[in-house]
């Protein structure tokens, strides 16, 4: 199947590691022009080299951007617009917010999670929409969490702001569909990433057992019997961003190996 991605300009936020990195790599493999971002220049440089080598695509570029800072977002998309003249695909992605239940979360944590996991998606979407409307083509894919379908105990910040982001995305999708701009949300279940390892370790420390036991229990709760691989998640995003998807918008999908019981 020709996905129609070759030579599209794709921006993947927070893409120096984990699901963001895997997503950028899949787009690069399809021949897209890919711009990756991260707060950490050193990590970004390493990832840039890896993606170029693994994809055999030299049209991959990197730029530092802290998505919690409005000025960083403005400068980042100014750079993309000046250098490439268009933006076809935006993959919104950030790190997960602080873990913990209600009593463990202070006002500062709430503000930080709001800026990181909701406001940043709003700001980046605002930055790309003028390009997409002019082109009469665009794809915005928001990376969220399986918590948008079924809350996760001990992750009150994620449960709150991921849900808000889905409400924003659904509303935006309805407003821009007439401009051939599709907006969708994809939430990962348990994937083999540093974030999941961090959460598994927190659970192990809380329960006083080894992380291996936590992983064993987690896998047993997934009908597929394993954690997902980052590239499996990335392929879903690439499909949603491609010309193969021409009518699906405003949806919130979860990729989780069958672990959720919610409809």
UniProtKB/TrEMBL annotation:
Pfam families: adh_short_C2
A GO BP entry: bile acid metabolic process
One term of GO molecular function: oxidoreductase activity
Domain of life: Bacteria
Residues spanning the signal sequence: none
Alphabetically ordered keywords of this record: Oxidoreductase
Family, per entry: Belongs to the short-chain dehydrogenases/reductases (SDR) family.
The protein's name in its UniProt record: 3-oxoacyl-ACP reductase
Organism: Planococcus versutus
């Amino acid at each position: 199947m020709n996905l129609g991605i070759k030579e599209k300009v794709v921006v993947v936020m927070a893409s120096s590691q984990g699901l963001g990195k895997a997503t950028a790599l899949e787009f690069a493999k399809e021949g897209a022009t890919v711009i990756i971002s991260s707060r950490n220049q050193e990590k970004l440089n390493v990832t840039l080299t890896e993606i170029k080598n693994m994809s055999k695509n030299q049209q991959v570029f990197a730029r530092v951007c802290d998505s919690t800072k409005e000025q960083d977002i403005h400068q980042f998309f100014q750079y993309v617009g000046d250098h490439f003249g268009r933006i076809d695909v935006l993959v919104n992605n950030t790190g997960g917010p602080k873990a913990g239940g209600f009593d463990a979360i202070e006002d500062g944590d709430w503000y930080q999670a709001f800026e990181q996991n909701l406001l940043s998606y709003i700001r980046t979407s605002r930055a790309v929409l003028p390009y997409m409307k002019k082109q009469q083509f665009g794809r915005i894919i928001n990376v969220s969490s399986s918590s948008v379908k079924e809350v996760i105990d001990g992750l009150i910040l994620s449960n709150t702001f991921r849900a808000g982001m889905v409400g924003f995305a659904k509303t935006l999708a309805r407003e821009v569909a007439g401009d051939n701009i599709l907006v969708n949300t994809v939430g990962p279940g348990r994937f083999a990433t540093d974030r999941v390892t961090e959460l598994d370790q927190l659970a192990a420390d809380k329960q006083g057992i080894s992380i291996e036991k936590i992983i064993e229990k987690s896998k047993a709760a997934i009908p597929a019997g394993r954690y997902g691989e980052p590239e499996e998640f990335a392929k879903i995003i690439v499909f949603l961003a491609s010309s193969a998807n021409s009518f699906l918008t405003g949806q919130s999908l979860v990729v989780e190996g069958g672990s959720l019981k919610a409809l």
